Give the backbone structure.
Amino acid sequence: MLVLVVLVAVGLTLWGFYPVARVQYREERDYAQLRAEYASIQARNVRLGKEVATLQTASGIEDRARDRLGLVKRGEHSIIVLDKSRPATQTADWEPPKVDVEEPVEAPSGPWTPVLDFVFGVRE
């Protein structure tokens, strides 16, 4: 009888505590996601700041014009080497300039994350 009373008491305690634990888990998970996104944004800002500093110099502008636009100075010559194994219509593999875009960031997770996600009903 005592075992039954203890089991009922534990069950009622868990039943009452579950909603609070669920909210706490979701908030902690969201906070971890936001921290990871913030760190990613800070790193991106550092990269962009360095790029801006480089582009504020004459040599930085020249390097960018040469690399991305294929420009040359007066008196210089540009040489294009063709690959004989390709058809004449495919002379170069031109790619548009790469833009520093924000990549999706995943929240850090541990070995128990999938289990806790299931228990607390978190779906991504």
Observations:
- The mean pLDDT is 84.
- The helical segments are 2-55, 58-69, 113-120.
